């Protein structure tokens, strides 16, 4: 037996020694990254991220802990991952498209443009920010927006539904975009704004309880 073979066998024996010894019972696989030996996604990500939290920068509360329907939360998750099927994404899948934004007819349609910087999106954001009396510089990405939104949402008991506003704006824009794209119909900006306000009201109505009129709701924003 040469030196290389001895070394390899030694490594193999060392590897075997790292497995827990089973004295009784049947043999079974053990996940070494968990103290109970069972596989969990959390333990995998923890190890993959060098034992640091993976949720520190990920705005999961603004996605999953808001009052919008689950399908909208899933949509928001897609939005901040830039996975909505805008022209930008379709071109990335090698589809031949001459990109134009359905909302402004001026720029190419990307996720960030459609949901943040398009003039239609800007009017929706401005409407809510004016009602709230908040000065705001639009971030570059949807992920940054949600992280920033968390920082200015200290509005007491209303905080939870206040965090629903980004989801409301993005859902309104996406619905309008698809209506223009697939049905050839469009609403003017006033109607889009009122649709967005109504949507937020109906999503938050149960939580607010005592506020029954849309006018009161807006007044309490
Ligand atoms: Zn646009």
Question: What this model shows, in words?
Answer:
The protein has 221 residues and is mainly α. It folds into two domains: 3-48, no CATH class; 60-219, no CATH class. Helix content is 57%, strand content 0%. It contains twelve helices and no strands. The chain is elongated. The protein starts with a helix and ends with a helix. The model has no long low-confidence stretch (mean pLDDT 83).
Q: What's the mean pLDDT score?
A: 83
Structural class: mainly alpha
Estimate the helix proportion, in percent.
Answer: 55-70%
Q: What is the number of independent domains? A: 2
The profile of the biggest β sheet is:
none
Total helical elements: 12
Bound chemical compounds: zinc ion
Q: What letter string, H or E per element, gives the SSE order?
A: HHHHHHHHHHHH
Rg: 25 Å
Pfam families: zf-RVT
Protein name: Reverse transcriptase zinc-binding domain-containing protein
Organism: Solanum verrucosum
In short:
It comes from Solanum verrucosum. Residues 39-125 form the Reverse transcriptase zinc-binding domain. By secondary structure, the chain is an all-alpha fold.
Describe this protein with a few key phrases:
single chain; 221 residues; mainly alpha; 2 domains; 12 helices; 57% helix; binds zinc ion
Topology record:
Layout: H1 3-17, H2 41-48, H3 60-64, H4 70-80, H5 87-92, H6 111-117, H7 119-132, H8 142-151, H9 159-162, H10 165-183, H11 189-208, H12 214-219
Residues 101, 103-104, 106-107, 113, 118 line the site of zinc ion.
């Amino acid at each position: 037996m040469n030196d290389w073979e001895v070394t390899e066998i030694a490594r193999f024996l060392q590897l075997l020694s790292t497995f827990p010894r089973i004295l009784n019972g049947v043999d079974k696989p053990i996940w070494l990254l968990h103290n109970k030996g069972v596989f969990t996604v959390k333990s995998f990500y923890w190890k993959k991220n060098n034992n640091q939290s993976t949720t520190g920068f990920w705005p999961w509360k603004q996605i999953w802990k808001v009052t919008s329907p689950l399908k909208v939360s899933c949509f928001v998750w897609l939005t901040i991952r830039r996975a909505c099927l805008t022209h930008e994404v379709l071109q990335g899948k090698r589809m031949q498209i001459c990109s134009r934004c359905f909302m402004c007819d001026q720029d190419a349609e990307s996720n960030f443009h459609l949901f943040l910087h398009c003039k239609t999106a800007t009017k929706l954001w401005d409407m809510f920010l004016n009602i709230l009396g908040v000065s705001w510089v639009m971030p570059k990405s949807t992920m940054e927006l949600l992280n920033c939104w968390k920082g200015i949402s200290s509005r007491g008991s209303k905080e939870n539904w206040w965090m629903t506003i980004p989801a409301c704006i993005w859902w309104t824009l996406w619905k309008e975009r698809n209506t223009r794209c697939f049905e050839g119909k469009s609403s003017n900006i006033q109607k889009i704004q009122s649709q967005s306000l109504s949507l937020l009201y109906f999503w938050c109505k149960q939580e607010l309880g005592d506020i029954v009129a849309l006018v009161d709701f807006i007044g309490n924003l």
